[in-house]
Amino acid sequence: MTLLCVEFGTRLYLSVFRDLTFKNHLEFRMSVPKPYRNSQYDVKKFTSSTFGQMDWETPEDTSLVIPRDFKTEYINIKDGKRSTTLQPLYYKNVIYLFGGSTMFCSEVPDEYTIASYFQDLANKEFPNRYIVENYGASSVISAQELERLKTINLREGDMVVFFNGANDVIQSIYNNDPEGYIVGKNNKIVRETGSVRAFFLKIHPVLGKYSTFVSYFLDPFERKYKPSHMNDSSHVESLTNSMEKNYARNIIEADNYTRDKGAIFFHFLQPTIFSGNNATTYENNLRSNPYLIGVGIEDAMEIGYPKLTGMVSDFRSIHNIYSYDITKLFDGRASNHELFLDWVHVSEEGNRMIAEKLFKEMIKTGEL
Fold it and tell me: What's the mean pLDDT in 331-353?
């Protein structure tokens, strides 16, 4: 009865004093925000049945993050790969797509991922020539993509695509750990935190989906405050230098590894809500909500992304890597054409635009 009273009281309080911001990603997406307004599926049903339901494993003695098998009406995972629709039964080569959660695309059903849109384009242009495999995994950085790439038996004529950048900046500058990876950093926080906060860290993701009180008032994440280390400019400069070195090493090594196997490597620096020009009112509202975009993320991206964009030209001119800066991809869209669901994840329309851009640049090379 006490818990019911607390829960009811919380909901009553928020109904009276509720402000205009959403307090978590689930609540925001269940509201069917503008990027979902033209979706051809039941957004609320999709979100409620998949949000936070997937699990990930990190095999021992590796830094890999691999999605566990999962089967629903909307999202399906088998053998560590998100399902790509429209794959042909017969094919000659494989196109492997690597990236973080923006490649995994948990914000949309299977048929609306970057991989599925890319497969459709490949089918139309090269029937029964390629299958596209989605090796996206939540939180991974370029080092983990490289590590997983080395587990694959590449064949001559296969293609490898790295679509990344954002997580490398977050891990190095925002998380203050250039040599680590995001899941490892989160696990370290849990191990080193106090017992009370550790308890909240465990129960919040599970019970927060059902309890308004837990979601709003037992949130253990300090989203409203910029990480203190980011106030030290010399330290941030050191973090940035480490990020540049690590990122360059990973992309160059991935290209060399792929070439040695007789396959083709492509690198794309991904767009974020901060990388475009002329932000819309909707995007500015997102950027000002610390529950959807943590304070300090924008600062980290403003420091780190110019370094990464500058590296793209070096990859091309010095190392002969097929490397592309597509950070301004969404600039040409109509002012009321919203795509972002947070600072980096987009709706199916954004995924379609990304897939078309990747396909267009790859086909220009004559390799595809």
Answer: 93
